[in-house]
Amino acid sequence: TEDFLQQTEKLSVIGHLAAGIAHEIRNPLTTIKGFVQLLKGKMEAKYSRVMMQELERIETIVGDLLVLAKPEVVSKETVDLVELMNRTVTLLQSQAILNNVSIEFKPESEEVPIKCEPNKLKQVFINILKNAIEALPNGGDIRVTQSFNRDQSILLSFSDDGNGIPKERLARLGEPFYSTKEKGTGLGLMICDRIIKSHGGSMEIDSVVGKGTTIKVKLPIDSDE
Length: 225
Ligand code: ADP
Ligand code: MG
Prior knowledge:
Layout: H1 7-39, H2 45-69, E1 77-80, H3 81-91, H4 93-98, E2 101-107, E3 113-116, H5 118-134, E4 140-148, E5 154-160, H6 167-170, H7 188-198, E6 202-208, E7 212-219
Parallel strand pairs: 2-4
Antiparallel strand pairs: 1-3, 4-5, 5-7, 6-7
Helix pairs in contact: 1-2, 3-5, 5-7
């Protein structure tokens, strides 16, 4: 079939196409949302609510697609990874508390300087931690650790004692739109993988059904690429 097209090339063509479409959908979407707001008082509340929720869902997918298509690191600066992680954990604290989930972050070092695009890394941490919270419907613990590899790279490990991922599903995680959640887009992990790769790092997922999931993120200290 199309063996001449490398998988990566294929992905980048699809990425460009998706970004183009996402961009074009955005403007009419904003227009429709505005008019739905206007119509609110003129129709049954439950119908306008459904319309608004569905429009917001389109917005989420379009937003994810746009991020996916533009993961290139633009401007890197040196930041403290420990502080960045602490801020991210704080950001998710209300969602965690609402779900009876505790998030603990234990860095090996008090300060871990890293050259990166902080907002992109923050997005990775948010996606991973949100998945972990969502894997703990009855509450539980999320442990994040930071250590150094022998080759001086940084290792971040995110563990939850949630429901875990069956083997056959684990294999499908890289696929776009593969989600087991009613409101999921199945783009979160793809976005994470892209961003980490664009920082010269890598991502790994270990999961045992009924025991939990560990996501390992490896990042070079001076992530030049
Ligand atoms: P979404 O969260 O929108 O479903 P993601 O790409 O973030 O998309 O995740 C894809 C799927 O991977 C999820 O639907 C879920 O089935 C699985 N998953 C990801 N992280 C975890 C986790 N920590 N525990 C269990 N399942 C997970
Ligand atoms: Mg997710």
